[in-house]
């Protein structure tokens, strides 16, 4: 099955982090395709409104459009050369230079949906306040509004190898798991550690019961859920082409905030990529919950956000 990544570029070093990360992953895969997309800078609304009645403004607008197109083509060609330098065949690279229509993030998302890409790849931020192409705000918009397409946000020069995958054993994220299988299967030097935080029995407010017995029952049920999840996960991942030695499970008991536990685990090991669901508890959007907590504090890593 073909793997398709849409890589958003703007010529900045930060956007190139995403570009090279994707290239390193794709170069170790087969049956791949990648798109390079650059959305032109926004044009003056005054020019757009007055061009129909003022020939001088119409001429200036035409020259601005031509300049944007030329700059976009140059950025895309430099990005293509970087992919070629990392072993990606030119025949699998698509170039997309597109005027801004509905907004930067919306234009990228619409194109990704229309052409059925597996994920959108972006750098975390742009170079300055003026260059807003890949500021953190745009990355956040891509994550929150991508409507079912996973988003990869890359914050440094990273070689994708060691992944921490945040999961819920009781309600596993099927889209996230399918995305992992699709993108990682067949790559022999990738290792996936699945990270499930045991919530523990919250029974302190229940009166007139044997607390120790109730805690034991809840713990047994939680262990059964974890065992079922892990057995199914290993079966699915190995069926997709991964080896058992590429998969591990960590299931610590919750102590404090789950987001902080995730970040502590990342700091204690040399993970390069974190995979986490878009929604928090009760299906809250990305703007709340563990996903947001981790994304705002995670630096020098790649972050995959999926359903």
Summarize it.
The protein has nine helices and ten strands. By secondary structure, it is an alpha/beta fold.
Mean of residue pLDDT values:
84
Give helix % range. Answer: 40-55%
Shape: elongated
**Largest sheet, described in full?**
10 strands, mixed
Roughly what fraction of the amino acids lie in strands? 15-25%
Write the layout of secondary structure elements.
Elements: E1 3-8, H1 13-26, E2 32-39, H2 45-50, H3 55-85, E3 93-98, H4 104-114, E4 119-123, H5 136-145, E5 151-154, E6 162-166, H6 174-184, E7 191-195, H7 211-239, E8 247-250, H8 258-268, E9 273-277, H9 290-297, E10 302-306
Parallel strand pairs: 1-2, 1-4, 2-3, 4-5, 6-7, 6-9, 7-8, 9-10
Antiparallel strand pairs: 5-10
Helix pairs in contact: 4-5, 8-9
Structure description:
With 307 residues, the chain is an alpha/beta fold. It contains 9 helices and 10 strands. It has helices at residues 13-26, 45-50, 55-85, 104-114, 136-145, 174-184, 211-239, 258-268, 290-297; strands at 3-8, 32-39, 93-98, 119-123, 151-154, 162-166, 191-195, 247-250, 273-277, 302-306. The chain has a 10-stranded mixed β-sheet, with helices on both faces. Helix 5 links the parallel strand 4 (119-123) and strand 5 (151-154). Helix 4 crosses helix 5 (136-145) and helix 8 (258-268) runs parallel beside helix 9 (290-297). The longest helix has 31 residues, at 55-85.
